[in-house]
Design a protein that fits this description.
The complex is a heterodimer. By secondary structure, chain A is mostly beta strands. Chain A has no helices and 12 strands. The chains are: A mainly beta, B mainly beta.
């Protein structure tokens, strides 16, 4: 079946450090890939997405590249800020079977000043 | 203007009670969803409606009954609440179904069953 695996958190970084949150997926067909962010006490917000192999999604300094050969969609940011502290969810959307978003378990990021 | 809104934000109730959570979207979207997020932050789809028609029901107990009076509203009614129903429930909407469709989430309803 379709699934998403994310690295376990929390990820703890100092401000201005480099961020990588790993995400790999298993899917039939050709899924679209997403990163959602959940700030404390809020709902999920779409951060970025990529719809085909080698596409790079980017937003607010975050980026992720759709790698079909490694079935990965790792999230990166060159210099994190305290305001980036949140839970980050990797997700895929596939058009085989039921069309739905399948989420990873989320990775909590804590950035200290 | 809030794009996807849910009421109530918090709901505390006793086991065995029946409760409802309401969701409204003002984005003109055709598709709405209910998700459940457990205490470990794991997020899973429960239902999906397209133009008031149920299209996904993810093996959710039949104590949970979604109702869509129109395409801007998708309410969730839960009968005979159990301790395991405690979670945060998120409503979401999207323009349609499809690979590149963005889903917009509401702020969530934290349900606590005592």
């Amino acid at each position: 079946g379709n699934s998403v695996t994310q690295m376990e958190g929390p990820v703890t970084l100092s401000e201005e450090a480099f961020l990588t949150i790993n995400c790999t997926y298993t899917a039939t067909g050709y899924p679209s890939l997403f990163w959602y962010v959940q700030y404390p006490g809020e709902g999920l917000q779409l951060l970025l997405k990529a719809t085909k192999a080698d596409d790079k999604g980017s937003n607010k300094g975050f980026e992720a590249t759709y790698r079909k050969e490694t079935t990965s969609f790792h999230l990166e940011k060159g210099s994190v800020q305290v305001s980036d502290s949140a839970v980050y969810f990797c997700a895929l959307f596939t058009n085989t079977g039921f069309q739905k978003l399948v989420f990873g378990t989320g990775t909590r990021l804590l950035v200290s000043p | 203007d809030t794009a996807v809104s849910q009421t109530p934000k918090y709901l505390v109730t006793q086991m065995g009670n029946d409760k409802s959570i309401k969701c409204e979207q003002n984005l003109g979207h055709d598709t709405m969803y209910w998700y459940k997020q457990d205490s470990k932050k794991f997020l899973k789809i429960m239902f999906s409606y397209n133009n008031k028609e149920l299209i996904i029901n993810e093996t959710v107990p039949n104590r949970f009954s979604p109702k869509s009076p129109d395409k801007a509203h998708l309410n969730l009614h839960i009968n005979s609440l159990e301790l395991g129903d405690s979670a945060v429930y998120f409503c979401a909407s999207s323009q349609a179904q499809g690979l590149a469709v963005d889903q917009f989430f509401g702020p969530g309803t934290r349900l606590t069953v005592l």
